[in-house]
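Notes from hallway chat w/ T.B., transcribed later so I don't forget. T.B. wanted the structure written out for a chain they're using in a teaching module, and asked if we could keep both sequence and structure tokens in one place. Agreed to drop them here.
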Amino acid sequence: MLAGLLEPMARDLGVSIPRAGLLVSAFAVGMVVGAPVLAAATLRLPRRTTLLVLLAVFGLGQVAGAVAPTYGLLFASRVVSALACAGFWAVGAAVAISLVPVTARARAMAVMVGGLSVANVAGVPAGAFLGQHFGWRAAFWAVAVLSALALVGVFALVPRTAAPTGADRPVLRRELRIYRDGQVWLALAVTALNAGAVFALFSYLSPVLTDVAGLDESWVPTVLGLFGAGALLGTAIGGRVADAHLFGTMYLGIAASGVVLAVLALTAQSAVAAVGLALLLGVTAFFTAPALNARMFNVASAAPTLAGATTTSAFNIGNTLGPWLGGLVISAGWGYPAVAWTGAVLAAAALVLTVFAARLHRSSGSSRIVGGSPAAGATAETASPLP
């Protein structure tokens, strides 16, 4: 939401655009911390109840942001909202994975990630539109209303489950064993670098479009909507191919994102190029997302809730790293196109680690033990003819 609101928020709160961009990072930091903490804290609670409570807290956080009189209070509201959002994503991902067989994990996660894509298509440009016509606080009120609608949806549609008991009762110490596996850390690093590559640019896309490409500010919601449309398309395609070609999907998506970012850095002064490449970046970035999610659940199958939490944290480490590095290069006077170069470098690093992870996966074999139990994802991963 904030991607299209940075400029009016910075003006209203009397801060610089890079400092306003830290509100994106604040949310991401809250997600990074909140995902594993809340996943651990709610491990033995009924999942639907947990989702409902977290959604309620998230909605109240939006209300607090809408009425916040100062930058500091708005910053704090973003962190609280992020903690609740992180827990929701971790538990929600575990619910999605539990409803499908192992060979359909990427497609299940594509459906859930598709929610983010729809948000980019409708929510982000709608937030920018509300900010331009009714003030940026109106966007926060709109998200609070949507949170209430989400509460109704979860209550009506998520299966009711009792808290696990007996032998099925999760033990935190046992679940934490997944972090002994180097593949889990590699999956985390690749996810974080890929997200950082995209958000280094996306967080500052509005000033890139207006100050560099020369577009009027009224164009920003439209371009953000195109990015979201590309994200929806990329998610749909990636979810269909990732279960059979997991590493191949990761290679193609990450490499394509790096190329798009590099070309955008070179052609950002062209309005046509900037708009078209924003659409392509949405496709390439979200094409990879289902594979990245499925990869984490495959290597950490013994602890699905913590796997979801780890993936959430990884994405938001990138969402923190990208805007922070983008703000640094802008503050250094290198100009807004430099954020695209920053993203391209992060994508290259993610691609290198993906190659290393694929080689390690081949050498360890499909029967390796993950988190104390056989890797449930072996079938999905070894079905691919790619490494």
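Follow-up for T.B.: The radius of gyration is 20 Å. Might be a good example for the class.
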